[in-house]
From TrEMBL:
InterPro entries named in the record: RNA_pol_sigma-70-like, RNA_pol_sigma-70_dom, RNA_pol_sigma-E_actinobac, RNA_pol_sigma70_r2, RNA_pol_sigma70_r4_t2, RNA_pol_sigma_r2, RNA_pol_sigma_r3/r4-like, WH-like_DNA-bd_sf
NCBIfam families linked to this entry: SigE-fam_strep, sigma70-ECF
Keyword vocabulary terms for this entry: DNA-binding, Sigma factor, Transcription, Transcription regulation
Family: Belongs to the sigma-70 factor family. ECF subfamily.
Segments forming domain RNA polymerase sigma-70 region: 21-80
Pfam family membership, one: Sigma70_r2
Keyword DNA-binding on entry: yes
Protein name: SigE family RNA polymerase sigma factor
Chain ranges of the RNA polymerase sigma factor 70 region 4 type domain: 111-163
Length: 179
């Protein structure tokens, strides 16, 4: 019995070490704050650890974990709606350490992009983050968000339209990519 628990713990630890940077990045993009992102990842991993036997037996544990994170984020949002919707300032945003394949890291002004992202309503932010930063398909994002593919398309389109409407944001990102 002890050997199985130890093997399960080692398997979970291996999963955790391999996924930590990506989970933290996704959580940061969802919350807009480093400490809130760390709390969200920790809450997610606590729930995943409790159900690890079931999670490990799925075809795609990453999908399961992503869904747990989205649900945890949604619960946190519902509890703190006013605090969450309060506009954030540049000083509230703590830059993450980008991984080498992160295209957003190539933009000159990450702060402007992250500030703009934090101004989106939660469902639009989730759709944009899952579709364009996590590079999930519409059906994968719909599964993670617990909604229809049409809702993902609608929220992503509205979110992108709001981001494009922010003066100077498109130029900042475009200029960052040309340098």
């Amino acid at each position: 019995m002890g050997d199985r628990k130890q093997a399960r713990d080692e398997e979970f630890q291996s999963f955790l070490v391999g996924r930590w940077p990506r989970l933290l990045r996704t959580a940061f993009l969802l919350t807009g704050e480093q400490h809130a992102a760390e709390d969200l990842v920790q809450t997610t991993l606590e729930q995943v650890y409790a159900a690890w036997r079931r999670v490990a037996s799925t075809d795609d544990p990453d999908t399961y974990v992503r869904r747990v994170m989205i649900n945890a984020h949604a619960r946190r949002h519902r509890r703190r709606l006013k605090e969450f919707l309060a506009p954030r300032t540049d000083s509230d945003l703590v830059p993450e350490v980008p991984d080498s394949g992160d295209r957003i890291a190539q933009a000159d002004d990450r702060g402007a992009l992250l500030t703009a992202l934090s101004q989106l309503p939660p469902r639009q932010r989730e759709a944009v983050v899952l579709r364009y930063w996590e590079d999930l398909s519409e059906s994968q994002a719909a599964e993670a968000m617990g909604c229809s593919v049409g809702s993902v398309k609608s929220n992503a389109a509205k979110g992108l339209a709001k981001l494009r409407a922010i003066p100077g944001l498109a130029e900042t990102v475009t200029q960052g990519g040309r340098k």
